[in-house]
């Protein structure tokens, strides 16, 4: 079983975490932390780079940039990345100024800025794809329709996982619900810590889960679960986690901010050409101790080409030529617009009032600051470095 799942210090994502995070993403709840942030900026306007992350493959660019000295090569003072055990802990540290660079779920970035008024910006994407819908290996679930009457776990209500899962369920005539016992054409969704998902699948308390890697790979390798659908085969090259920084740093330290983003873009380009080395960097046997995952589990993800794996028969869009996880830093505006549109149609627990009046085109302009990432991409050879055409626009392709 994956090391993260057996980590006795892992606090998980329990009800207390959810309530805490929900409070942070309100104006009243965030105010004390934002006040601390202002005080921190005033006390140390030249603070070193402090990275916050969760130990999932989504964090790879942050960790590789640190390990390979890319921040230091650009003259930045940087602390060893700070690992957090829940989104609530990570967001609290970020909003209060304890860390000044994080990866967060893309819908969470929307919630933080418009739900709490946090002065934060998305400066780029951290990766693309890298998540799957995994079900128990031996409970007779072979099609999406077989999920009727079952309970599935998601990592958070404001996640690309919840958005994509609900698209898929509805396409197959199933209704997602957030409470109560599901009927034969319903699927109950429950928030669960990634570390609890694999044990939950093994004991039968859930029928499956949708989450970032490497928890899907761990289920496969341990014979507990099987992938039913890759999210990248639903929403082509979608972002999951995005890179988030404080607006004050971008405005008051533009040269510093450019170096931070440049190092992250360099890291993504490096990972694409050095996947096996990336596995070694992230693995638990690396002295840096970035994650608790084994090389075997990480290899399943980082070296995975969906067309070449045993799961190839599950791929509905082989022409997309998807990798299990890939790296591309530019935050396409059309993606942000589509995400806002879909969030308004997605069932979540709690108030969604802040979403209702959001204009998707406004959010794409206001949430994202792409000045630094554009410069960094040009410095590494342009969009072609990431296998893309030389343009900063695209049309979203979603086929559940």
Provide tags for this entry:
six-stranded mixed β-sheet; five-stranded mixed β-sheet; D-Maltodextrin-Binding Protein, domain 2; disordered N terminus; alpha/beta; 2 domains; 400 residues
Characterization of this structure:
There is one protein chain. This protein has 400 residues and is an alpha/beta fold. The chain is built from 17 helices and 13 strands. The longest helix is centred in the middle third of the chain and has 20 residues. The chain is globular, with a radius of gyration of 20 Å. The protein starts with 14 loop residues before the first helix and ends in a 21-residue tail after the last helix. The relative contact order is 0.17. The N terminus is likely disordered.
Which structural class should the secondary elements be placed in?
Answer: alpha/beta
Radius of gyration (Å): 20 Å
Number of strand elements: 13
CATH domain fold name of the largest domain: D-Maltodextrin-Binding Protein, domain 2
Any guess at the CATH architecture of the largest domain?
Answer: 3-Layer(aba) Sandwich
Largest sheet: 6 strands, mixed
Distance between the termini: 30 Å
Helices and strands, in order, run as: HHEHHEHEHEEEEHEEHEHEEHHHHEHHHH
Instruction: Return residue spans where pLDDT drops below 50 for at least 5 consecutive residues.
Output: 1-13
The 3D shape can be described as globular
Q: What number of structural domains do the residues give?
A: 2
CATH superfamily descriptor of the largest domain: Periplasmic binding protein-like II
- Counted by DSSP, the helix tally is 17
CATH class descriptor of the largest domain: Alpha Beta
Mean pLDDT: 89
Strand arrangement within the widest β-sheet reads 8-9-7-10-6-11
